[in-house]
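Homework help board

Subject: predicted structure for assignment chain

Our instructor gave us this sequence and asked us to write out the predicted structure in token form, then describe one feature. I got the tokens but I'm not sure how to describe them. Can anyone check?
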Amino acid sequence: MLNPGDTIGIVAPASPFDANMFNKGVSVLESLGFNIYVHKDIYYNNGYLAGTDYQRALMLNDLFSDKKIKAVFCARGGFGSMRLLPLLDYRIIAKNPKILIGYSDISALLSAVYKKCGLVSFHGPMVTTLGSASKKTIHSMLSALTAQTEIKIKTNKASVLKPGEVSGTFLGGNLSTLCHLTGTEFLPSFYGCILFVEDRGEPIYKIDRMFTHMKLAGCFTGLAGLAVGSFTDCGPIKIIHKLITDFFKEIDIPVLAGIEAGHGKENITIPFGLTAHLDTDSKTISFKWPAIK
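My token output:
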């Protein structure tokens, strides 16, 4: 867990970022009482990537090996995180566990560090989103990264697509990214897990195709539950929820949709790799805490 005065390191593992948005996000983190370390290579630009694959992987390896760094925040998502997976030093990461937080394309990193190292990570805001983030988003992030007791995530806006109550390891991320990790050594098994998914800008037929791909690949075999985040700019949410309901109707698991995490206005922070309890009656997901000791 983080404490006031701890140092947060910032990397750019995916796409280049807007400097103004970045600086606003850094100011938010500083206002919360943290020291900020910006890696020297973070401002490189290699077309649609924030530097070469080697440079971006080196940034992550450097920050995980630095004992002074307590958390690693990503400047932005976009594209490119998957390209780093074979270049990361998982031995160093496993020997130096620390907070890793991000979402969207960063889901590739969150999945890989869990699969390779068993490391708990966090699906939550990136630096360039913090400057314009809602108070709820920032409060959720701070609570998740500093909490010392069990925390419950509750949303009254959630929709129960399939009722039930279940416990399991909480994993997941961006649906498109998870789908493209299918068949690789970097996607964790979801057997006995509660899977979280979200996405942005994907039409309904592509969402259908991604779920179908993962089902045919066996990704949902033994799945314990499903938590559905925001599907922003993907069409009417009722149609998406109906697709998910129909898709999982033959699998006896609880499905809770409308979790305020992902690309929507609210992006609450959720730990991956911890045991969670999902209860559709109370519309809550609770986690055993602390996530980081």
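Reply (TA_rk): Your tokens look well-formed. For the description, you could write something like this. The mean pLDDT is 95. That's the kind of observation they're looking for.
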